[in-house]
Specification:
The protein has a three-stranded antiparallel β-sheet. Helix 3 packs across helix 4. It is built from six helices and three strands, in the order H-H-E-H-H-E-E-H-H. Helix content is 65%, strand content 8%. It has two domains: 33 residues; 112 residues, Winged helix-like DNA-binding domain superfamily/Winged helix DNA-binding domain (Arc Repressor Mutant, subunit A, Orthogonal Bundle), CATH 1.10.10. It has 159 residues and is mostly helical.
Length: 159
């Protein structure tokens, strides 16, 4: 096995372990009792990118528009997002997070960050920074290949 194949083999295996670990963390914490991952990501996307229509939101999240529509309907039923007609085309709905939606998303974000800080407690700031840069680069590669929307902007300090 050449060096490239060996590196890809390690990445492939560790990616599988990473997915398993994410599932393990999901099952063993109560962070997602308030908002599940889909709700959290949808609200976080709206908070960072601003109000948008279902098709744009679906593209940004890598979802089918009907799936995004169902998620939005569920969040709307909980009072976490609001729909309003698009000013230029009243057939389209613009989805906006409510104050309550933003508050709950922020609570989950803080709890996730605290949990992550505990997991990475023994890591140096440079190691945490490198992991953030690598996750960002990996997620951008996935977005460029599979999402129809432009990749999300890099978070501050991710370079």
């Amino acid at each position: 096995m050449d060096a490239t194949s060996a590196a890809l083999d390690v990445i492939e295996h560790q990616a599988a372990v990473l997915v398993r670990n994410f599932e393990l963390l999901y099952r063993r914490t109560d962070i997602h009792d308030d908002l599940d991952r889909a709700e959290y990501l949808l609200l976080r996307t709206l908070a960072e990118s601003g109000p948008q229509d279902i098709n744009s939101l679906a593209a940004a999240l890598g979802l089918d528009p009907s799936t995004a529509g169902r998620q939005v309907a569920a969040l709307q039923g909980l009072g976490l997002v609001a729909r309003s007609p698009a000013p230029t085309d009243r057939r389209r709905s613009i989805i906006t997070p409510t104050g309550e939606g933003l508050r709950r998303m922020e609570e989950v974000r803080v709890r996730r960050a605290e949990s992550l800080a505990g997991l990475l407690e023994g890591w140096s700031e440079e190691e945490r920074h490198t992991l953030g840069v690598m996750f960002t680069k990996y997620n951008r590669s996935v977005a460029e290949r599979f999402l129809t929307a432009a990749p999300a902007p890099e978070p501050a300090g991710a370079r």
